[in-house]
Amino acid sequence: MLSLIVFLPIIAGLVILAVPSSQKQIIRIVSLLAALAQCVLAVLIWQGYDAALPGITAAAGGAPEGSFQFIERLPWISLDLGSFGSLNIEYFLGVDGLSITMVILTALISAIGILSSWPIQKQVKGYFILYNLLSTAMMGCFVALDFFLFYVFWELMLLPMYFLIGIWGGPNREYAAIKFFLYTLFGSVFMLLVMIGLYFSVIDPVTGNHTFSLVAMASQENYIKDAILGPDSVMWRYVAFIVLFIGFAIKVPMFPFHTWLPDAHVEAPTPISVILAGVLLKLGTYGMMRINFPLFPEVFQASLFVIGVLGAINIIYGAFCALAQQDLKKMVAYSSISHMGYVLLGLAAANSEGMVGALYQMFNHGTITAMLFLLVGVIYDRAHTRQIDKFGGLASYMPVYAAVVTIAWFASLGLPGLSGFISEAFVFVGAFSAETTRYIAIVSVLGIVFGAAYLLWSLQRMFLGKRKPDAAYDLEVGPDGHEHIHFHDWKGKLDLDTRELVMLVPLAVIVIFLGIYPMPVMGLMTSSINKLVEVLSPVVMTALN
Amino acid sequence: MHSLIQISIAVLLLPLLSFVILIFFNKRLPRRGDFVGVGILGATFALSFYIFWSVVVQSYDPSFRIAWDFTWIDFGNVPGVGPLQIKMGIVIDNLTAIMLAMVTLISFLVHLYSTGYMAGDPRYGRFFAYLGIFTFSMLGIVLSDNLFSIYIFWELVGLSSYLLIGFYFEKDTAADAQKKAFLANRVGDIGMWLGILILYSQFHTFNYQEIFQNLADGKFDMSEAWLTAAGILLFMGCVGKSAQFPLHVWLPDAMEGPTPVSALIHAATMVAAGVYFVARIFVLLTVDALHVIAFIGAITAFMAATIAITQNDIKRVLAYSTVSQLGYMVLGLGVGAYSAALFHLVTHAFFKACLFLGSGAIIHAMHHEQDMRWMGGLRKHMPWTFATFTLATLALAGLPLTSGFMSKDAILAGAIGFANAEGGGIYYIIPFLGFFSAMLTAFYMGRQIWLVFFGESRTHLKPADDHHHGHDAHGSHGHDDHHEEVHGVHEVAWNMRAPLVILAALSIFAVYSPDPLDGAKGWFMKMIPTPETVVGSASGKAEHGTSSANHNAAHLLAEAVPAVGHSAETDAHHEGVASEVIHEEDSHAAGHGDGHGPEFSDPRQAAIAHEAHDAHKLAIVISSVMVVLGISLALIVYVFRFVDPDRTARAIRPLYLFSFNKWYWDEIYQATFIKGSIVISKVLSWFDANVVDGIVNGAGALTRRVGFATGGFDKYVVDGAVNFTAFFFNTSGAVLKKLQTGKVQTYVVLLMLAVIVYFIYYFTQLIY
Amino acid sequence: MEILTNIGLNHYLTISALLFGFGLFAVMTRKNAIVILMGVELILNAANINFLAFSKFNGGMEGVMFSLFIIVLAAAEAAIALAIVINIFKLFKSVDVSAIDTMKE
Amino acid sequence: MFQLPSGAEIESIIATLKSSVGFFVPEIWLSVLFMLLIVVDLAVKGRKNNLLASVAALGLAATFFFIYPQHSLATGEIFFGMYVLDEFALFFKYFFVISGILAVLVSVADEQLNRDVQSIGEYYALIIAMVLGMIMMASSTDLLMMFLSMELVGLTAYVLTGYLKKDARSSEAALKYLVYGSVSSGLMLYGFSLIYGMTAETNIMKISAELALHGYDPLLMMLASLLILAGFGYKIGAVPFHFWSPDVYEGAPTPITAYLSVGSKAAGFAILMRFFFVAIPHGGEPFQDIAGLDWLMLLIVIAVISMVYGNVVALWQKNVKRLLAYSSIAHAGYVLLGIIAMDELGTQATLFYLLGYLLMNIGAFYVVILIANRTGSENLDDYRGLGRKMPLAGAALTVFLISLVGLPPTIGFIGKLMIFSALLAKGSVYIWLALIGVLTSVIALYYYMLIPLNMYLRDSKQPDEDRDRTPIVHQVALAVLMILTIYFGLFFAPLTDFAKASSAMFGLSIY
Fold this sequence. Notes:
The complex is a heterotetramer. Chain A is mainly alpha-helical. Chain A has 23 helices and 4 strands. Chain A has a two-stranded antiparallel sheet.
């Protein structure tokens, strides 16, 4: 099941490889079908998922069964390393409350991304092959329970992303692409070392061998006392935690490692921005929750305050930067930074409310930001500019577009009744309830105001009022006395066309529904989060050594 | 589930239904579907009046209370907390019932009125949709039984207010106003949110009753200061929503919205929600918090009144008077005159709605002329409007025989009582400001009546450009006819007249109390008794600390019992318990026949109540005098013209300008907060683009220059190494590559050099 | 006097060391490719002397064999070297190694 | 002073030789092949390149049939300890034969070579000779044998480097290579002579026993080791013995560059491991009674410098061959890390890394050759837009480069993984080495990605016809290499097991 959902896109990619590059439509349709099949599978998994099982660590007896679900576990590589026992790498997939929401999100966003890739004309074949490779890698990251496998998928994302930004991107794309690539690689090379170190420090309770299994790593009693990352070598555990954290924080992206994001977003084509903001950023925080924190709980407990402060910086700083942007897409990019700050803050709370809020925020940010970038793409396709000041009064001429934008914008500023609010609310609830992060939460609340400020301001400048004199479109009064506008060299429908609606409406529905009744998604994660909080709680650490 | 609960759910959801229907299908429906909105609201009102009837009139019980809730979010078994569920629910008590009836009635009337006022607007259907979602959110606030859902609906009314203020979004002023309103409210909301967080972090629940229960049981283990902070922060929500000082600036601008909206949202209901919320959380406000609230209210009442006297825009005068009246209510709550404040909330809702709708009628008739200086003599043309408007004005000014008189008087009495109980001194400022504002109110309302209805029409005096501007402002409104002279100013149609009449009728004392001089004798203040505080007061703690606390607990338990175990099955025994409570309360009432307020165990509250009761007569006298003073002043200035207003204005120009420019609050905020954050954001984004990126990329610019010098430097290399040593790597690369001279002999030399160097190194290692 | 009369191991070693040094010196300093190759030969022969000396004083034939092979290989190397140098001369019209630096950095 | 051996002794000598020959079949076959090629060349008298190439390739392939049976033979010394047969040697026999085949393959692909060279037969013969020499390098356990085999490799390499007689760069490269190489081997010889002087032995096993027995003067030992290392180091092309490599790699015919960058480098590592693991005392068994010579420090220094220098200077290269030359310096550093670990895991990692390097580096040069056939240039700027015109080559090159960076799912990643595992398995002592390794590989990413950047992200300056003229055979071969690179990145167990089995070295006592 999981293998299928992971490798469907690759299969599609191989099929496309066989299709002659002139058959653009076939290529698109094949990819779309694969993505839709992925969505179906995601729904099936969702239906078959038992929200009661906790996940995170193995069930009693050290076996993942009974704790994780849809487990697929095959011995992949088993090497004899002589004195170091045998190197066991497993093909080990499974979902728990952390990953299932992300799986659903990934399937959804990739499908929508393919829809929004429809207009792309340049090297369609190569584009969709890379795209499918990317979506396999993303999905794989979320379901992999073997650190080695996770790392493989993690690195596998870089190359397609590099090319997708670099070939189909904007004018300054080379710069953005290589910057993205180097940043993320810089983050992940340390992960490699930590991974090896962990391997030598952890014993699978069942087989008695060293293992890469994240499930085994997640429970501290599986660690060898005097191993390099065992409980005794305190210093190296701190170092490992920090470098891992940096590795994931770059993906999040967390201040001050965030500078690749605006460039990447501004240069990337719309669908790639959607993927990037919708899924890739989540991998950073997902990695923290899956790997970084549960493997080093005592270090995590020691660094709560720092993480919280960094989250607060992200929130406020991102909001301020967004406030200053002229380029709409850049503003949205900074808003992503700000919103991922809420996730960090929620994680720093280290209690169930906060962490549920954080995970839920990851999901919601995925959907909402996808909407934002799609909407930016819509106007960019028409006007070939994203300068906020080049518009004005659009609400009169593109009412449907304006309506959807209003939903997305208000969702992004956390209006109650839309999903973004609930996650942010519980992030704050959690952060405030935790002694460590209480004052940080108080400061971060300002983010709500500034978030509203830049979003409403851009909304006003683009959609309200009247046409600006130097606007990117022409105004003409039709025979019926009504005013019309038209963009230079835009032949399509002025307001949202069907394809765009098909992309946007489902997202809007999800955003609204989950804003009114979050349990369908939140219910999936609570038990896992509770387990995670338990694993992270200091009590466990004192029991450790 | 109790039948009333079911009905209330219907009441809550019907307006939402109207919104959904209208937002999607208004273009396809005949008449843009206005009848849907009006009809649904009519039904809603009918239902909520049934609730009102059966709660307030039939079971005539001050402590009536039924509650119902359901699990909204289930966190499962949370480590350290245990099973944790976030519940959403509905609570119905007298206050709720009264608010329901009031909100739905006014909303219904406004819907009806709008069918006339908004006729011909291009977005006619959408207007009713917005009204629908507003009504929904407002009812949500009224019905919520917990802080979380009240916060949700709180922001939703903010949204609908945002949408309606910006209904004519082509106007930049409107667009600015809507943004301003939303942001000002957000500022208030974050305070409110923090307050909620403080309480949640202690009790892991959002439900009022559970929070109060825990407080009464002394489970609050943070310092007293946090509790006060919680109170004040929660009050910040009210400051934003009810346009209290210092966040009052958005309300006058909100008059950019259509006038029915001003009547419904910005006069009668939404702005009163703040007061309603403070009343809901009244029992957890500490003494310090109450003092803050009282002063804020007094300042607001006074400031707004002073501003109102110089405004020329008919709606702005009313807007400031609204702010001022809201100040009264907040003041009332602050001084502990709980019932009086809520009483004023309701009475004010009716007469202020009436005033706004009246002004709307005038504006409609005047073809969207809003400046009172160019009105005059309208009483001949619009008798109905004149009559109702005047009646409402009297109520607002607080003349006897009106509802406004009773409520305002009760508040002022409370203020005096409070000042006495607190031991005078600085606290006398509050009643003083209250009375002074009462005079000002009378004055500016007199001025308004005179300018609008009496004298001769002054339309022709209006400068052309100003006139043109007046039209241009409403150009998008579909009325493009230019009038130099106001022809055919005529009374409005029935659908706009009926609401005026009904609302005016509701401003008469008889509706609320048999005794025109004492609201306390009326059903309203009997049904809304001042609740017992759960946090005690300084004096109370000082004198009999624990015992009083216990007593509080016991007393509150009695109140709270019906709220415990909110589940459908136990409704039956709800009534049982409720009835017992009734007996207890009756015994209280019997205790002192004239039935002002229940007996308080908290000495401070008791003292205030007592003092207030004694101050009642005094208050009546003073306020009447003040009102008469104000009105006569208005007559002197505007009717008999003993004093020329313009000359006076010139005489006291600084004061005049100070008032005319609204105490310069907008300018101050513009200069400080708005400019400030813009500048900060600019600075930070520069910082981001240059410093952060620069550092992370290894001093980008510098490296580029060096690289340029060394020739063919590739800018990617700067970001290439993505770490602080990028600079080092590239320059070192530039240096190292020079070693490769291409001369084989150099290579040999370097080779030998390396060997020798290492050998010497090893040698030294060896001998030392 | 004694040190001059009966020759010991150190004499051989000193000679070889000197030869080694001369060879290196030639390789590093001379411009002419041929001379550089001579320098290389010197180095090899320094090694040769060592081997022979050690084999004489430690006993065992390995050193002798070693030196024989070294001589042979030196010859082969010289042949190849000369071929290359000739080709260089064809192309560059010079055998000045310091001038032959088209590929650098 | 030496009396001639008696008849009985001669008998025994002959017997030994007879028995030893049985262990020497692959080398003999290669020698035969060498001569065969020359004969064929004379026979065909001209330019039947493909015939000659296929003879060479098939002949090399045939060598497997002689190598494989040797697994069953008893490991041990032959020819009076001149030579040894063990798993380690066998591994390198396979390795060098494969690399030889690949070298022939890429030589066939190189149009310039086939155009400018008359006697291509000798060219292939020399490649065979080089294979032979490298195999002997990997198997020789006697200083003399080491010297001879290294000279064999060196001399053939000089000739092959200068094979393009009309090309000035080729001849220049040859000269530099020759001078530098002969000086280094001179130094090495001098070092040998010193060791011989200290121990009166030339067999490395005997040497280590001798040193263990009588101890030694560490200063002299270090001098000898340094000089010897100069000889080995120039073969592996590690800093500071690397100076020849960029020029030679740039100037030599590209197939030879590929071959040198993999083959002679690997041979250098083989001989270095054998010599230092076996001969030089290092403090462990059986030298606990005498102070180990601290030559690990020496290797660590060299490794670190190589990684940093190679990667940093490569950032600046505009010529792809030269860029790969510097990257190969860096890779020498990475391989040294595996040797530094100095245990079974380390050796295993080293061998595996060499295997991976063989695949990806020859593959990369393969593409470079194909592109040079098309554009006639190896400059980065001439790679613009080639990704679209030569889709397979572009994809393959990208894969090889990713593998060189060490990103999954490629064999290069597994190589790095093994190396770093070997380091971290030693505990925290070598973590900093691993850190340097990963950080420098981040730098490496940048310059490696410059090539795909030009191929895909930039458009070629002059638009020419989009048809890919690469012959199908090369397309296939390239595809195979690419697929292997990825396949072994995912299912590397056979290779790693092979490497582990091959880490057994005769007379080795450190693990």
